[in-house]
Amino acid sequence: MWIDTHCHLDAPEFDADRAQVVERARAAGVSAIVNLPGHVDHFEAARESGRRYGCITGYGIHPMWVAGPSGHSRREEIAVLAEWIARERPALVGEIGLDGFVPDTDPAEQEHFFVEQLKLARRFALPVSLHVRRSQDRLLYHLRRIRVPGGFAHAFNGSAQQAAEFVKLGFCLGFGGVATFPQARQIRRLFAEAPLEAIVLETDAPDLAPAFLGTLGSGARNSPEHLPAIGALLAPLRGLSPEALAEATSANAQRVLGVEALCSVPRGAS
Ligand SMILES: [Zn+2]
Q1: How far apart are CA 139 and CA 265, in angstroms?
Q2: Which phi and psi angles does 32 have, rounded to 5°?
Q3: Backbone angles phi, psi at 33, to 5 degrees
Q4: Could you give the CA distance from residue 113 to residue 106 in angstroms, rounded to a whole number?
Q5: Separation of 142 CA from ligand 1 center, angstroms?
Q6: How far is the CA of 205 from the centre of ligand 1 (A)?
Q7: How many angstroms separate the alpha carbon of residue 239 from the centre of ligand 1?
Q8: Residue 224 sits in a domain of what CATH number?
Q9: Domain ranges, residue 46
Q10: 122 versus 65: which is more confidently predicted?
Q11: How would you classify the pairing of strands 199-201 and 56-59?
Q12: Given phi > 0 = left and psi -120 to 50 = alpha, else beta, which region is 148?
């Protein structure tokens, strides 16, 4: 059993074959998919995907949708998000965080959205899915002030010390396609050396395609159906069988999400 802890199933890249993608993922052994729409305009579609495909849905406003000329989130959307969380009672809040890499987003506005969303997670006692890019210490600063019940630090990259701080705060570190590239040395080292109870697997599909789909940053479409093959490539880095890695990471994901939050990808999803 494999769990994809971070996926964007409602992305337009899946419009032509979403049902088949879920079907193939299930056939490949993926028993749960965490779907994160990232923008209030996509919440409806994500709820529908949750119903139709049995995804675990997280609601949140992605830092790349915040302010700046390319984003169009407005502060009122935090109230919209609060209504969705109160009504839908999702398994987690996310994808939220800080992105210190993408130009055109206002750092202060990103922090405002992040802090307000953390407060929502705390109010509803929900774990969060974190977007961490060149923002590890800033995120840790806020996470220490506004305590939430842990979550996933998605596509984690950073120092071993920073990783340990996230783990101390109850977070599992998410690894996926990027770690399948031999040149991603630091990420592979983190994957190999992090405590086994602190790692989860993810695809970030349609992004972050693994090495067997092309070169790093090729833009090939990633998909939750590839998670078992990604896991099989990563397992030897820890001296584990793919089955043992699947079992450990799935148990971690279930612990973070709460066992009752896990619904399996239904048979014959369409
Ligand atoms: Zn993502």
Answers
A1: 32
A2: -155, 145
A3: -130, 125
A4: 11
A5: 20
A6: 8
A7: 28
A8: 3.20.20.140
A9: 2-260
A10: 122
A11: unpaired
A12: beta
Does the reported pTM lie above 0.90? yes
Give per-residue pLDDT as tens, 164-176. 999 999 999 999 9
Ligand 1: centre distance to CA 125 (Å): 22
**Closest among 195, 200, 142 to 7, alpha carbons compared:** 200
Strand order in the sheet with 128-133: 2-7, 30-35, 56-59, 92-99, 128-133, 151-154, 171-175, 199-201
**Tokens representing 259?**
């066992």
**72 located within any domain:** yes
Flag whether 237 is in a domain. Answer: yes
The answer to whether 53 and 269 are in contact (CB under 8 A) is yes
- Residue 220: DSSP 8-state: P
3-class state of residue 269 by DSSP: coil
Task: Give the C-alpha distances (Å, rounded to integers) separating 210 from 33, 34, 154.
Answer: 17, 18, 15
Q: Hey, is 46 helix, strand or coil?
A: helix
- How do residues 234-253 score in pLDDT, each as one tens digit? 999 999 999 999 999 999 99
Question: Token pair 């600063």 is at which residue?
Answer: 141
Cβ neighbours around 59 below 10 Å, total: 31
